[in-house]
TrEMBL record:
PROSITE patterns: 4FE4S_FER_1, 4FE4S_FER_2. Binds 2 [4Fe-4S] clusters. Keywords: 4Fe-4S, Electron transport, Iron, Iron-sulfur, Metal-binding, Repeat, Transport. It catalyses: (R)-lactate + A = pyruvate + AH2; glycolate + A = glyoxylate + AH2. This is Glycolate oxidase iron-sulfur subunit. The lineage of its organism: Bacteria, Bacillati, Actinomycetota, Actinomycetes, Streptosporangiales. The keyword Iron-sulfur applies. It comes from the Bacteria.
């Protein structure tokens, strides 16, 4: 923990109404300035007690406080340093160690995640039983999405029409295995907007889940592999469609001690920068746009997704009340802190319901699973889609969710010319 960063906090309290756990519980030690006070105590010699670790674990790392802070406190950096210190110093009970071992031995590895897919339809039914074994296991099962069939991504998707750019695309772990249709839609949208899309083999987790949980060694190993993969692919821009991944990859310089040989941009950020050329067809829908914390607060990307959605004819965008309050996903938070996450998810679902929207648009797989589960509990029939899926439907002139082409022999549903090799 950096004492200079800790001393930047003047304890003004502007962070309090933006902090999800303070909003839930009203406890000072579960606010950013309260946690910074605990960090200072530890730097000055107080050991990491179970109570102290509990307050740090209860933080979602949503970065709403960073947006609200008038003093520019780097709470994002502080909480990452603190979580690494907690993992080094704090001895967790055997059950908690076992659950964390399952999560971090599974989620960062796409091939292992793939083994779960055949039984995903059963997960929600098993959630009550698993919750009796351990609350985190029940939460994991309840969050399980209804996965579409696997879609194989080619190594290169060629631009439709005149080529305007060449970009790399991160397929990710959770996004790639649980939301393959989002990756397919992302590649199609980039192709239709004139990009050659390079999708190198050997991708996996970018390290975001690990770095946000204080597992520095695993995070660095996964980050190095990601950097090596895209540097070898020879691209100078990597487009990311998962907010948490984009946030972490933009901080690779701090994590690895050197900047990668490419820049990282969120999909909406890149499309707004590139400017539209492909024709938008009407989508007569009312949508509510959800600000993923690691997109809005960590990356400062707010206007671009709204601009892209507003450019679709007949589509109406509505704002969600309390949009700055986290939905409770926060990477692995909804697994390790299931009750707090459930409370925040239900709060977000209630806010979404007030918009009267037919569709919720999200830019992060964790948020999608979290809010979809909360809306199922509330009996809501509002669908959830990624920004890329909405744009894809408009560009192709099809209904949202409609697949206008059959998969090829590799399972790909990408339009336009593709290449299996580079």
């Amino acid at each position: 923990m950096d004492p200079e960063l800790i001393n930047d906090c003047v304890h003004c309290g502007f962070c309090l109404p933006t902090c999800p756990t303070y909003v839930l519980w009203g406890e000072e030690m579960d606010s950013p300035r309260g946690r910074i006070h605990l960090m200072k105590q530890h730097v000055e010699g107080t050991p990491v007690t179970p109570e102290m670790a509990g307050h740090f674990d209860a933080c979602l790392g949503c970065m709403a406080c960073v947006t609200a802070c008038p003093s520019g406190v780097r709470y994002d950096r502080l909480i990452e340093q603190t979580r690494a210190e907690v993992e080094r110093r704090h001895v967790r009970d055997p059950q908690e160690r076992a659950v964390r071992g399952i999560v971090f031995g599974l989620f960062p590895y796409p091939r292992r995640l793939r083994l779960l897919r055949p039984g995903m339809w059963l997960a929600e039914r098993m959630a009550p039983f698993l919750a009796r074994v351990h609350p985190s296991l029940g939460a994991m099962a309840a969050l399980a999405p209804r996965v579409e069939h696997r879609q194989r991504m080619p190594r290169v998707v060629r631009a439709r029409g005149e080529r305007r750019a060449v970009v790399g695309m991160l397929t990710g772990c959770v996004q790639g295995e649980f939301f393959p249709q989002v990756n397919a839609a992302t590649a199609r949208v980039l192709s239709l907007e004139g990009c050659d899309v390079v999708i190198p083999r050997g991708q996996g987790c970018c390290g975001a889940l690990s770095v946000h949980s204080g597992r520095d060694d695993q995070a660095r190993r996964l980050a190095r592999r990601t950097v090596r993969t895209f540097e070898q692919a020879g691209v100078d821009t990597v487009v990311v469609n998962a907010a948490g991944c984009g946030s972490s990859m933009k901080e690779y310089g701090e994590l690895l001690g050197r900047e990668p040989g490419f820049r990282v941009v969120d999909l909406s950020e890149y499309l707004a920068e590139l400017g539209p050329v492909a024709k938008r067809h009407p989508l007569p829908l009312t949508v509510a746009y959800h600000d993923a914390c690691h997109l809005a607060h960590a990356q400062g990307v707010r206007a671009q997704p709204r601009e892209l959605l507003s450019g679709i004819p007949e589509l109406v965008v509505r704002e969600i009340p309390e949009s700055a309050i986290c939905c409770g996903s926060a990477g692995t938070y909804n697994i390790f802190q299931p009750q707090a996450a459930r409370d925040l998810g239900d709060r977000k679902a209630a806010s979404v319901a007030t918009t009267g929207a037919e569709l919720l648009v999200s830019a992060n797989p964790g948020c999608t699973m979290q809010i979809a589960a909360a809306m199922r509990r509330a009996g809501s029939d509002i669908r959830v889609a990624h920004t890329a899926e909405v744009l894809d439907a408009s560009l192709r002139g099809v209904s949202l969710g409609e697949r206008s082409e059959r998969p090829d022999k590799h399972g790909s549903v990408l339009t336009g010319p593709t290449e299996e090799g580079q």
